[in-house]
Amino acid sequence: MTAATEGARFASRRHRVALERRDGAPVVRKTYADAEAARRERSAYERLVPLGIRVPVPLGWETPTGDDRDGGPPDLVLPYVDGPTALDLLEAQEAGAPDAPRDLSPWRALAAWCAEFHQRSGLALGDPNLRNFLRETSTGRWFGIDFEDCAAGDAADDFGALLAFVVTYDPARTPWKQAVAAAMREAYAERTGVSAECLLARQADGERALAERRRLRAAQDGPLPLAN
Ligand SMILES: Nc1ncnc2c1ncn2[C@@H]1O[C@H](COP(=O)(O)OP(=O)(O)O)[C@@H](O)[C@H]1O
Ligand SMILES: [Mg+2]
């Protein structure tokens, strides 16, 4: 696995997400900061898995361990998906890393994952930031994770929000990011019949909403730049 060691923590704004081993196999344990987030994520997985949407299938919901965990919501235990997040891939391509050729096909495949998610579930992801998509290196398949904000919602708006993330990660709106977003709009349009022009308009809405959220967060947090 990619330099991942047992006990390693993944970046999480609110929760504790750590790598563990079960019978020799790597798993990810997510300990929730609040019961409501845990409840929403669990009910999302319970809907998505039977629909055959490609997500890591939960191995269990387990009583949290540790001193002050009594009474907390169950931890989610997932199989580890070995590969980069969509953000890792985008950044590696942007940097011209030799092991990340500038290939648009992963982005078309990510758009296809989203189209399938929207069409099969009728739900919106709610938080389609690029850390919530993992690309398994051995197969090239995408897996979605992090469904705390998943709920009924407009599919094109949800996809527009994802495109807004794509183009605004630092450095924003580079030619490569614009090419990625265009390829994703085209692939999503092909599968859903929503026009690429409509998706571009939803992306612009998403960019405005994201700029406002980042402005509010920067005002709360002080001057540090934030990734999402
Ligand atoms: N099953 C998994 N396999 C590999 N990495 C994972 C897995 N689940 C989570 N991660 C990593 O942990 C990070 C945080 O998990 P996530 O569920 O998105 O928590 P948060 O709600 O804090 O964003 C992800 O961005 C990803 O890098
Ligand atoms: Mg996340």
CATH topology (fold) name of the largest domain: Transferase(Phosphotransferase), domain 1
Radius of gyration: 18 Å
Mean pLDDT reading? 93
Looking at the overall shape, the CATH architecture of the largest domain is Orthogonal Bundle
Helix content percent band: 40-55%
Q: Please, how many domains?
A: 2
- SS summary, helix count: 6
Give a quick set of tags describing it.
single chain; 228 residues; alpha+beta; Transferase(Phosphotransferase), domain 1; 2 domains; four-stranded antiparallel β-sheet; two-stranded antiparallel ribbon; 6 helices; 8 strands; 14% strand; globular; binds adenosine-5'-diphosphate; binds magnesium ion
How would you explain this protein's 3D organization?
The structure is a single chain. By secondary structure, the protein is an alpha+beta fold. The chain has 2 domains: 16-79; 86-221, Orthogonal Bundle (Transferase(Phosphotransferase), domain 1), CATH 1.10.510. It contains 6 helices and 8 strands. A hairpin with a 6-residue loop joins β6 (133-135) and β7. The model has no long low-confidence stretch (mean pLDDT 93). Magnesium ion binds at residues 131-132, 146.
